[in-house]
Amino acid sequence: MQKEITNAFKWVLIGKISNQLVGFVITVILARLLFPEDFGLLAMIVAFSSLVSGFVNLGFSSAIIQSKQINQNSKVLVTGGGAFNLYLLKRINSFKHLKLLIPSNTLVEYKEALIFGFLGVLRLREENNCLSSVTGAKKNHSSGTVFKIK
């Protein structure tokens, strides 16, 4: 068991160091290729995504995903596009009597825009933005297309 833990730690460490080195090389290349305004915008996006991913990686997402038991009459916060899907809300409520809490449309749309922006940044960084544990896909992967508006 100790050998497996040491081996796993070694591979995680190698992966993290490799990720940092590749990120640094890509940053240097992009700094040379992009105009200063574009590189500044990219730097702000990367800084923002790093900040958001720090919160994402605190374990809240896995705690939510792993929470398999929702009691009768529980309060459930519904945000994102699903908050506007009456059929989905009806189906969720049909399994158990739940109190579905839906914030204002402005907050739902803001959160949705923020998350899709973050997914776009993950796509640009070629990091996984589609998790099999959430979507039912065969494996985690990076998907989508990011368009630049001129």
Description of the structure:
This protein is 63% helix and 4% strand. With 150 residues, it is mainly α. The protein has a two-stranded parallel sheet. It is flat, with a radius of gyration of 20 Å. About 5% of the residues have low confidence.
Task: Please describe the structure with a list of short key phrases separated by commas or semicolons.
6 helices, 2 strands, mainly alpha, 4% strand, 150 residues
Task: Show the helix and strand layout.
Layout: H1 2-33, H2 36-56, H3 60-66, E1 75-77, H4 86-95, E2 99-101, H5 105-124, H6 132-135
Parallel strand pairs: 1-2
State the gist of this model:
By secondary structure, the protein is mostly helical.
Distance between the termini: 55 Å
Strand order of the largest sheet: 1-2
Structural class: mainly alpha
Radius of gyration: 20 Å
Q: Tally of extended strands?
A: 2
